[in-house]
Specification:
kinase activity, ATP-binding, Phosphoglycerate_kinase_sf, 6-stranded parallel β-sheet, Rossmann fold, binds adenosine-5'-diphosphate, EC 2.7.2.3, binds 1,3-bisphosphoglyceric acid, kinase
Length: about 400
């Protein structure tokens, strides 16, 4: 087991990695469950007299959600009830000056670490440890704390580089999510196990379908579901009107998706109908056989939702990662909410994961108590379910 913040001496200068990655709507960062969870870790550290500089990321370069962390500082401040200063820099002079001025009990949020060139390429931890980002920041701190469980499957500099050159501890979120998800991995179920996979990130979900044992069927939706429909020969899963969700992912994953369909097709349930915005701005629905590539599909249709809800109702365990549609818009929430309601009404073991997807629970009046575990992690939790170790956890110090 890794060392945790219980093993830290009080009053140190700490570099702390959070995952504050949140939805951005019209340029406005939306609060999600990650802020509150990390705020609890942060309050504990500040109460213990530590001076804390936080590193975190937001979005991916090229996406609308790739924005500065200035708004995150305000949201975090609301959650901890103290000032959170922000500096629009990660490892330059401005950042170093602000870090050197930090006193015990104070917190500073550094700029979106994905704006630093060293951060993103997936690399070996030893290589990341040599980067300017790590080499510049590490000497300014007594220790490093990683609380970003939901990003722990990424081999990025701020997640895997620092532990090789500093004492490295797990924060509270890291500890609780790791413990909960490891326990799930060891569970056995008497009846059918269903996994509902959707959202935007094919790279995280493909290995799950290929590798996870003990899942009887996968219900697919969202952008990932459309890529599978495209591979199955339907005219969906194409970028329309300037979106950049589909074509790049299709190029990267087409062959694997086709192979999965061939090998594991009997375990996969794909949408039979989809929803779109009609000319009057209302929700329209169409069978996948009648769909055309010029239409943006924003949800699974009602026949699909009914089928998925029925499969959920007869399951012993249900795991959800990723939304079946753009649930943030009520018109396209039926698929995601229909499946969550079916889980809530069924006495099954259930886990709902994903920083975005888990927001649907409070948004549509559902209660977290109706689910066995609601994880703030998406890709990391499903990777853990496949038995994969998470690289940013592997490099933390051991007890
Ligand atoms: N057909 C679709 N088109 C565009 N966005 C979609 C579609 N289906 C789902 N989404 C989006 O997927 C997001 C959740 O996906 P993702 O970020 O991969 O999951 P999470 O953060 O929950 O792990 C939601 O915010 C939702 O709006
Ligand atoms: O939101 C995240 O993951 P998730 O969408 O799987 O919940 C993490 O912040 C990782 O972000 P990334 O998938 O852009 O590397």
């Amino acid at each position: 087991m890794f060392t945790t913040i219980d093993d830290l001496e009080s009053g140190q200068k700490l570099l702390v990695r959070f995952d504050l990655n949140a939805p951005v709507e019209d340029g406005v960062v939306q609060d999600n469950r990650r802020f509150q969870r990390h705020a609890d870790t942060l309050s504990e550290l500040l109460d213990d007299g530590h001076a804390v500089a936080v590193l975190a990321h937001q979005g991916r370069p090229g996406r609308d959600s790739f924005v500065s962390l200035d708004q995150h500082a305000d949201i975090l401040a609301d959650h901890i009830g103290r000032e959170v200063s922000f500096v629009p820099d990660t490892d330059g002079e401005e950042a170093l000056e602000a870090i050197r001025d930090l006193e015990g009990g104070e917190v500073l949020l550094l700029e979106n670490v994905r704006m630093c060139d060293d951060e993103l390429p997936e690399k070996d931890p030893a290589e990341h440890a040599e980067s300017d980002l790590v080499q510049t920041l590490a000497p300014e701190f007594d220790a490093y704390v990683n609380d970003a469980y939901s990003a722990a499957h990424r081999a990025h500099a701020s997640l895997v580089g620092f532990p090789l050159v500093m004492d490295a501890y797990a924060g509270r979120v890291m500890e609780t999510e790791y413990t909960a998800n490891s326990a799930i991995q060891d569970k056995e179920f008497d009846g059918p196990v269903t996994m509902v996979l959707g959202g935007t990130k094919a790279e995280d979900l493909i290995p799950v379908i290929e590798r996870v044992d003990g899942v009887d069927r996968f219900c697919l939706g969202g952008i990932v579901g459309e890529l599978f429909l495209r591979a199955a020969g339907h005219d969906v899963g194409y970028d329309v009107e300037g979106t950049d969700f589909f074509d790049d992912q299709w190029e990267s994953h087409r062959e694997t998706i086709e192979e999965i369909l061939e090998t594991y097709g009997d375990r996969l349930t794909l949408a039979v109908d989809l929803a779109y915005e009609d000319d009057d701005g209302d929700r329209g629905e169409i069978s996948v056989d009648g769909a055309t590539k010029e239409t943006s599909f924003l949800d699974v249709g009602s026949n699909t939702t009914e089928t998925y809800a029925d499969l959920v109702s007869e399951s012993e365990a249900v795991f959800v990662k990723g939304a079946l549609g753009v649930f943030e818009d009520e018109r396209f929430s039926d698929g995601t909410v229909g499946v969550l309601e079916a889980i809530a009404e069924t006495d099954c073991f259930s886990v709902v994961g994903g920083g975005d997807t888990s927001r649907a629970i409070p948004m549509y009046g559902l209660s977290e108590d109706d689910f066995s575990h609601v994880s703030i992690a998406g890709g990391a939790y499903v990777a853990a379910l496949t038995g994969e170790s998470l690289i940013a956890i592997d490099v933390l110090d051991r007890e």
